[in-house]
Amino acid sequence: MTVNKDAARKAAYAARKEAFFRGQGQAAEILADYLADLSGKVLSGYMPMRTEIDPLPAMAAHRGVVGVPVIPGPAMPLRFREWSPGCALEAGAFGAMIPAEGAWVEPEVLIVPLLAFDARGYRLGYGGGFYDRTLEALRARRPTLAVGFAFAAQEVAEVPTEPTDQRLDAIVTEEGMRPFR
Q1: Distance between CA atoms of 38 and 15, rounded to whole angstroms?
Q2: Which candidate in 74, 109, 135, 178 could, as Cys together with 166 as Cys, close a disulfide (CB 3.0–4.6 Å)?
Q3: How big is the chain by its Cα radius of gyration, in Å?
Q4: Tens of pLDDT, residues 21-39
Q5: Which residue segment(s) compose the domain that 48 sits in?
Q6: The pTM is what?
Q7: How many Å apart are CA 21 and CA 50, to the nearest integer?
Q8: Given the DSSP bridges, would you call strands 170-173 and 104-105 parallel, antiparallel or unpaired?
């Protein structure tokens, strides 16, 4: 299965890069509108890197606590540190920017970055399994909503999956929101 995922990742990076340079369109506004119904819930977003679609405007508009993922170590679930626009940031694992200080929070809703997604709600990540482990642990404790955020061009016919892969509940692209469950 790893060989299939490696080939899928390479193709997905190329598709995302092309979509990134065409522009993000209405994606952040659609995401913010979707999240408005989840006001008051603890939200996790992410600090965009390279050609990832940018969730920061939607995160800033959220009415409630917002966190960003912190990678505590290899093969571990993510932790989430509280974030607000303008807070001091520092480089974390893999070069992702994280808040330099702040409270640890447990999200009820996660905006999830990805390389590719399919109509079943599966996502292709970067291969570390961080979000899959995290979603599994959070969902074991209470309902947790996972919202993929991507360009529409990142949709593929079928994401190669493994038993540990966690499904998304919805995907938001510049073309709109689509629920999976």
Answers
A1: 30
A2: 135
A3: 15
A4: 776 778 999 999 999 999 9
A5: 2-179
A6: 0.91
A7: 11
A8: unpaired
